[in-house]
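Marked as duplicate of an earlier ticket. Keeping the data here for the record.
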Amino acid sequence: MNVDIQDEGDSGSGQAVAFTIGENEEVHVLHPQQIIAYQGPSSGRADRFMDVKGMYRKRKLIRSDLSGPCRFVAALPPGYRIKTLQMDGKSDLLYDFKHLFFYSKGITMQTRVLSIKNMLITRDIIKVKFSGHGTIGILTEGTVCEAELDPLEPLYIDAGSVVAYPENAQLELTVYGNHLASQHMSYHWKMTGHGSVLFQAGRQSRRFERDNNDDGIIKRFLREALPFGGVFIK
């Protein structure tokens, strides 16, 4: 399977992702409505209802199974990107299932239940661990960054920007900095451990645009001055 990401470099336009599926290859697309062009036998595409776990985790009912030989193009809206990752059966990263755009034949998934405290803060119940050999495509807002964890020195990452982290990582939801900084920021994951963590760099663009809109001096002051004003005052 070959995945060609076509990007014009214009942040205001979407991204096209071209797939070439070979003989005896198969890919499962979890956003079938984004497929805008297809070339191959009509029988090469079969839409199916997800199982109950898939429906819950993805909040969607249908996925598309595409078998080779065929070619197709999927379109992404402005601001979104696809990050392809090769799985070799050794990865211990945990992902949020909502980021999964496609996965190839040979990939299996296992669920990991979060702690009650993390469920309440993140409004999520489970994470997904991929195993097997194949390719997955992760849907992100903006560029995907990677940082190495240290067993002693913590790494702080905006909680909503985290895409995947090692299963062995120690996590704590917190804020950091002085009194004003900790009141002004959103929750962060404080992480220690071994391995690397993936996070998306585009999620903050919406907050940046909002903060630069003409909201009025009073609203902007309250957002900056009140504890967690940036979270509760939209």
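See parent ticket for discussion. Residues 60 and 74 are 17 Å apart (CA to CA).
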